[in-house]
């Protein structure tokens, strides 16, 4: 269930930051949500997986929302492939943020 919420959170955060906060500073809400996901994770593994899911869907939706290119089939197929592959960077970033959030949970609770 948390994986579904992480994916849905990534979609909502991607859309909200694209349409409401568009700019370089939208990384701040992204990082805060990734930290929260890691902090609330049941364990380190769960938090990192949920953070990766969050980051993947965040990048996927954010990049897709900003697409202003051609709409022919060939161009869209290339863009969708690029978007899906580049979103792996988002998964890595979300996993790192969640890892840090989980690490902070261990430091704060001691």
Mean pLDDT: 87
Question: What class would the helix/strand composition place it in?
Answer: mainly alpha
How many β strands by DSSP? 0
Largest sheet: none
Question: What does the radius of gyration come to?
Answer: 15 Å
As residue ranges, the low-confidence spans are none
Could you spell the SSE succession in H and E letters? HHHH
Principal-axes geometry comes out as elongated
**Helix coverage percent:** over 70%
Tell me the number of structural domains.
1
End-to-end Cα distance: 28 Å
Tally of contiguous helical segments: 4
Strand portion, in percent?
Answer: under 5%
Kindly list the characteristics that best describe this protein:
single chain, 110 residues, mainly alpha, 4 helices, 83% helix, 0% strand, elongated, membrane, TIGR04086 family membrane protein, transmembrane helix, transmembrane
Overview of the molecule:
The protein has 110 residues and is mainly alpha-helical. The chain has one domain (2-108). 83% of the residues lie in helices and 0% in strands. It contains four helices and no strands. The protein starts with a helix and ends with a helix. The mean pLDDT is 87. This is TIGR04086 family membrane protein.
Blueprint of the fold:
Elements: H1 2-20, H2 27-40, H3 44-65, H4 73-108
Keywords: Membrane, Transmembrane, Transmembrane helix
Transmembrane segments: 47-67, 79-104
Protein name: TIGR04086 family membrane protein
């Amino acid at each position: 269930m948390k994986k579904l919420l992480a994916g849905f959170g990534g979609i909502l955060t991607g859309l909200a930051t694209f349409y409401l906060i568009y700019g370089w500073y939208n990384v701040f809400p992204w990082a805060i949500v990734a930290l929260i996901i890691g902090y609330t994770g049941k364990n380190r593994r769960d938090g990192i997986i949920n953070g990766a899911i969050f980051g993947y869907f965040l990048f996927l939706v954010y990049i897709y929302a900003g697409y202003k290119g051609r709409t022919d089939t060939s161009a869209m197929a290339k863009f969708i492939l690029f978007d899906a592959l580049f979103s792996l960077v988002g998964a890595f970033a979300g996993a790192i943020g969640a890892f840090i959030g989980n690490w902070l949970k261990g430091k704060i609770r001691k």
